[in-house]
């Protein structure tokens, strides 16, 4: 278990003054339309049961009661605790069949964020934004993270979880060429360059490191007095 090394990545992080990534960093082996790639529903977990339970446990420990939640890159399940009561839950995803089977969603929108990285919600609509094992696919991450900041209320929380499992032909180049510690830094940098969030925090949630799927979480809170436009 990487444990302390994961948390130290962002505690000790130093970022270049300007966005350090190039277009090539977000290129993919398969540049075909994502809506077509994900057209067939996949009603399966994309991390193993141990990682799923670790994620749900983390949500139980950190979600504020009766929150308005947006699940970005949502699917047929959001992994929220069964006994957690939200005020409202919305989802954005690529496959309507999957989204329609997610019983935690009060509403959903089918949107390809690679083509249109804009959320169909007003500014400061949500208390929490989640994204599960999908950040590695974003080709326009800065725009998506700015949208996360825009729709969050001041001091609202973003929870970005990821593993080392992915569809390698659809994951972006910079992700495939990085190790787990570097990936934590990358996600932290996405928050940093929005200038909309507090310093991000990283957690190693891996339940049985080296045996079952690793799981990492990077969180950040929306700064007060940020212009949401």
Automatic annotation (TrEMBL):
InterPro entries: Methyltransf_11, SAM-dependent_MTases_sf
One function term, GO molecular function aspect: S-adenosylmethionine-dependent methyltransferase activity
Family matches, as Pfam families: Methyltransf_11
Domain Methyltransferase type residues, every copy: 106-160
Protein name: Methyltransferase type 11 domain-containing protein
């Amino acid at each position: 278990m990487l444990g302390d090394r994961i948390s130290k990545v962002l505690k000790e992080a130093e970022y270049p003054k300007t966005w350090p990534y190039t277009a090539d960093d977000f290129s993919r082996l398969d540049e075909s339309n994502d809506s077509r790639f994900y057209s067939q529903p996949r009603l399966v977990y994309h991390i193993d049961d141990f990682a799923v339970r670790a994620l749900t446990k983390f949500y139980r420990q950190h979600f504020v009661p009766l929150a308005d939640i947006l699940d970005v890159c949502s699917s047929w399940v959001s992994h929220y605790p069964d006994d957690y009561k939200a005020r409202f839950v919305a989802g954005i995803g690529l496959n309507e069949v999957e989204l329609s089977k997610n019983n935690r969603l009060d509403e959903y929108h089918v949107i390809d964020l690679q083509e249109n990285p804009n959320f169909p919600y007003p500014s400061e609509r949500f208390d929490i934004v989640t994204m599960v094992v999908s950040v590695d696919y974003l080709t326009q991450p800065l725009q998506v993270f700015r949208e996360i900041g825009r729709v969050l209320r001041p001091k609202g929380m973003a929870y970005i979880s990821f593993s080392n499992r992915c569809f390698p032909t659809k994951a972006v180049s910079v992700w495939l060429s990085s190790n787990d510690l570097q990936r934590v830094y990358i996600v932290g940098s996405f928050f940093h360059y929005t200038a909309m969030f507090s310093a991000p925090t990283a957690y190693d949630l891996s339940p049985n490191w080296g045996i079952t799927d690793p799981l990492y979480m990077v969180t950040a809170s929306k700064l007060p007095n940020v212009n949401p436009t």
